[in-house]
Design a protein that fits this description.
The chain has 2 domains: 174 residues, TolB, C-terminal domain (Neuraminidase), CATH 2.120.10.30; 272 residues, TolB, C-terminal domain (Neuraminidase), CATH 2.120.10. Strand 3 and strand 4 form a beta hairpin. The chain starts with 7 loop residues before the first strand and ends in an 8-residue tail after the last strand. The chain is mostly beta strands and 464 residues long. The strands form 10 sheets. Strands 9, 10, 11, 12 and 13 form a 5-stranded antiparallel sheet that branches. It has a 4-stranded antiparallel sheet with strand order 1-2-3-4, with no helix packed on it. The chain has a 4-stranded antiparallel sheet with strand order 5-6-7-8, with no helix packed on it. The radius of gyration is 23 Å and the shape is globular.
Length: 464
């Protein structure tokens, strides 16, 4: 049909042979069903922090369509998404639902979408004015969804509804050895979003979605006892925990009054968390820490969102003026210091796909590619002799020899990690110091394929 350089986030096809589709970042695009060059239909509003338009869905007239305008990672996002309606003629779009972290569709006189608690909702919708015509009400609970804001349901104009069960809110922390053998679980099933193993390997810091309305906070799990304690309590979302080298503090991204901050808090004691850095307004809503240097003097963090992400370094001494490590027109993220502090690994898409690169630290303009055919989420072994990363769900290990100068070998596949669908730069696994065990934020094991449920004449189930 046409070339698209990034992963997709939905498509829709009308009777006039027009296809709308959504790249994961950017606005909705249009192309003929006969193929050709795609052209934009919607434009990202960067002044409000929008990063993508997703899941277009044509309304019956074939001209108007629904889509989800989102800001940053889901769920919940630092700034909630909005379901909007637009048209092929380029008229200004109109917001229909605020705070809807879901794809949406229309059928049988109703707008359908999934709420944050995984409930499928229906709302009367007037096609004459393309506006809601009544209050939303629940149809089905526990409908599957995930971090791209896709909701696993579909409807037809003949009154048929099909949906998949399950929840994005259930993850399990599992231990694996290098062969992928399951060594057990840690804690209970919960909506974990990322994790970090403490330097003494006695605790794990996690981001956990909790409460109603849902918020994200940092929790610490005692590995020996499996007990979980809450570290942050602010109503703003707190994510992306990173341990200090001595294990006394945790750095994290904290949202405060609509702004993204790099913050830190002591693990023991009652002192409040404190700001380290406020992200520039143009880079809302992300300043996510990814690594703390072994000497405690620097924090690496990912600044920006969507197609505008770079690796920056915050010094914790002197004037504390941050500086970029990888700052180009490409996406760079997930910077991680080597155990001796002489190197920093990160992810970049400069070659067309996300791969692992390494630079000296401090940077001198040179860089080396480690992965082949893709790679994300780098983690060093404690002796610096291996660099682990994920590639298409597989946990990889690249041999490293950098005692004198940089040298890396061919990456080896260890096992399928079963990692949850994480949004970069969130970390979905951790490695022990000896590189023999891995803690993975895993999708719960299913006894079999999850069923799809088909409902015939679903409008008849609506209580009048």
């Amino acid at each position: 049909m046409c070339d698209v350089a990034v992963r997709g986030a939905g498509g829709t096809w009308n009777r006039d042979n027009v296809i709308l589709f959504a790249p994961a970042n950017g606005g909705v695009m249009r192309v003929s069903g006969a193929g050709g060059a795609p052209t934009p239909v919607t434009k990202i509003d960067s002044t409000t922090g929008e990063t993508s338009h997703r899941w277009p869905h044509f309304l019956p007239d074939g001209r108007h369509f629904l889509y989800t305008a989102s800001t940053g990672a889901c769920c919940p996002a630092a700034k909630p998404a909005t379901i909007r309606v637009a048209s092929l003629d380029g008229a200004e779009s109109v917001a229909l639902l605020q705070g809807a972290e879901s794809s949406a569709s229309y059928a049988s006189g109703h707008l359908l979408f999934v709420r944050a608690d995984d409930t499928l909702m229906a709302q009367p919708f007037d096609l004459r004015i393309n506006r809601p015509a009544g209050d939303a009400f629940p149809l089905v609970e526990h409908v599957g969804s995930e971090g791209m804001r896709y909701a696993s349901f579909s409807t037809s104009q003949t009154g048929v509804l099909v949906y998949g069960s399950g929840s994005r809110l259930a993850q399990q922390l599992k231990w694996f050895d290098r062969a992928g053998q399951n060594l057990g679980t840690l804690g209970e099933t919960a909506p974990y979003e990322n994790l970090a193993l403490s330097p003494d390997e006695r605790h794990v810091a996690v981001t956990l979605a909790n409460g109603s309305p849902v918020n994200r906070d940092i929790f610490v799990i005692d590995i020996a006892r499996g007990a979980r304690s809450r570290l942050t309590f602010d109503p703003g979302a707190d994510t992306s925990p990173v341990w200090s080298p001595d294990g006394s503090r945790i750095a994290f991204q904290g949202m405060r009054s609509g702004k993204a901050y790099l913050r830190q808090k002591r693990v023991v004691g009652t002192a409040d968390d404190e700001p380290l850095l406020e992200a520039p307004a143009a880079d809302f809503p992300a300043a996510a820490p990814t690594s703390w240097s072994p000497d405690g003097r620097f924090i690496a963090y990912t600044l920006g969102n969507g197609p505008r992400q770079d690796v920056w370094i915050l010094p914790l001494f002197g004037d504390r003026k941050p500086f970029p490590l990888a700052h180009t027109s490409f996406v760079e993220l997930s910077g991680v210091f080597s155990p001796d502090g002489r190197w920093i690994a990160y992810v970049s898409n400069e070659g067309g796909s996300q791969d692992i690169y390494v630079q000296p630290f401090p940077p001198n303009g040179t860089r080396y590619k480690v992965s082949k055919d893709g790679g994300t989420h780098p983690i060093w072994r404690s002796d610096g002799r291996e660099l682990f990363f994920l590639r298409a769900g597989m946990l990889m290990a690249a041999p490293i020899n950098a005692a004198q100068q940089w040298d890396s070998g061919t990456p080896e596949t260890l096992f399928f990690a079963q990692a949850a669908a994480g949004i970069n730069p969130s970390r979905q696994y951790a490695a022990t110091k000896d590189g023999k065990r891995f803690l993975v934020n895993s999708r719960p094991q299913q006894s079999g394929a999850e069923p799809l449920t088909v409902v015939l004449n679903w409008p008849a189930t609506i209580q009048k």
